[in-house]
Amino acid sequence: MAGVKDKKSLTRLSVAGLLVTLGVVYGDIGTSPLYVMKSIIEGNGGIMHVSDDFVVGSVSLVFWTLFLITTVKYVLIALRADNNGEGGIFALYTLVRRRAKWLIIPAMVGGATLLADGMLTPAVTVTTAIEGLKGIAVGPTVWISNQRQVILTTIIILSVLFIIQRFGTQMIGKAFGPIMFVWFTFIGVLGLLATLQDLSILRALNPYYAIHLLVSPENKNGIFILGSIFLATTGAEALYSDMGHVGRRNVYGSWPYVNLCLVLNYMGQAVWIDQHNQSEVFQKMADFNPFFEMMPDSLRLFGILIATMAAIIASQALISGSYTLVSEAIKLKIMPRLNITYPTNQKGQLYIPVVNWALWAVCIAIVFYFQTSAHMEAAYGLAITITMLMTTILLFTWLRSRKVNAGLAGLMLLFFGSIEVIFFISSAVKFAHGGYVTALIAAILLAIMFIWYWGDQIKNQDTFRSDTVSLLAYKNQLASLRDDNNFPSFTTNLVYMTKVQDGNRVNKDILYSILDKRPKRAQVYWFVTVNVTDEPYTTEYTTDTYGTDFMVNVQLYLGFRMSQRVNVFLRQIINEMMARGELPRQPQRYTTIPDRNVGDFSFVLIQEDMSPETQIPNWERMIIQARLAIQRITVTPASWFGLEYADVVTEHVPLILGKISYSMLKLSRRHKPAPSDEIEDNETEN
């Protein structure tokens, strides 16, 4: 209950909550001004091909994209689709998954593309910020004078950022909010000062100019300009995913200020571009960024430094968000089990080593491969359009589950779905310019999810239907084995991690392990099932002793964001059961712990290996084999269930699926040669 109270206090609307929100939620969308206008200009052939109407139309497209996608869809609609305060595509999926099995598809596709496209965020933001330092003198010295130095500096910053993840970011995280407040205020004031030089830019608030630009001959890219425009709202999905850290009210309270600062900065950049589009200096420059160029020289160094810090914060938000996303996918059995650690006492902060170093490797590879932020921007945003479309599909299902009028829900699906399909088509041109990188990453992630999820479906629908037994049918045998002194005591508490189904049925391999493979005498036999709930922070359990004091069916109900520390939970459960008189105490004669009334635990984990006798279609066999292969190279069940320091026994059993046709041997009546006949035959041959 204390954890719930702490969470509520963090998510309550307050000044502290608003600051945390600025630091946690808006890193991605907040650094978009670093590259959006730059990408629009470069996509149209350079500043010499930019007119006043083009600039106004571009800012109008940015403004209305932010309003429709970020404000209306995510802030006003999606934030209401929370799962006990948690947001994001997997939290949304848990709210609607009972309505239709096929909803797992948009959930997996959206999760895979969100992870894949997000891998570009640290590379794009940090590289763009460091490029602003090129040619800038810090004192008497120019620290960065060429792109090779930009790449080296970017790699160093990213590497340090990923290295410190294992120690937790609780301390530096406290500074994120104030830094991002300074960042948004800085870019807002900077944009306001530039906007005041030409208030005619306010025409961009009229959607006419946005629509006109799409069909204007001055727009050399036509509808494909939306690929660059879309970069302004790529962080909207992260805004929804991070809601659980700060609460809906704090997002509502902070977004108007953030949105205002972003729009002012885009307008300010547009005014600067319009004032300098005829400048020969900039027409001859191959690479420049209007975001940095519109700053007064006296503020340039400060602007670059605060931009770099904002880029690092955006990268940190992406990294933390990836941990959370993967953790949720694991708990929902969409991805294989991975080792998860909790480096600090801060609720919700976790660290997944495999994910961390995979992200680092991909980010470094992207920096080396693309070399410049301009090339990265050309590939950025393609996959996230798919994520947003999948979220729209799930939101439609959620609205229907809330009894919203079918016409209104359908209108939402049609309106936002159409916009996002157009954005996807306009971004499709990025595939040839590097978008294939994120598409390939997304495809790999989606294949892993597909194999893991459908492999589990195939295995469960077959084995648990035909190869289960009732625990009650073996109650007498377990009672006799417990009291049979002819067998040495295996352990005091023998625990099996298994799925106990309705009717108290378990996989037959469990009883075979206890009674046949090697009779395991114990004082109490435990059958533990971990149920992952749709609520994120559930910690509940039920027990059933079947009228005995030696058999316990434990059903653990853990939220999809909770770690599965079974060893710790069981010790709490047994103490509470002893206090209620449901189990006898287990006093230990030899122990270092005074008054110890709980005996030792041994955990038996059953590991399945594909049997050659399996008779299922070839494609199902391939999926099962791939799933078992992934299972062998990921975290062990012992680590997943928090049993690293417990006594664990792993037993291998054959996994037999499908109908099995047994070939029975028959006693042959054929003549068997006598030994003397064999000798005679050999002599004849010689």
From TrEMBL:
Main location: membrane
Keyword Membrane recorded: yes
Ranges for domain K+ potassium transporter integral membrane: 19-464
Domain K+ potassium transporter C-terminal as annotated: residue spans: 493-649
GO cellular component: plasma membrane
Protein name per the record: Probable potassium transport system protein Kup
GO MF, any single term: symporter activity
Signal peptide coordinates: none
Protein family per UniProt: Belongs to the HAK/KUP transporter (TC 2.A.72) family.
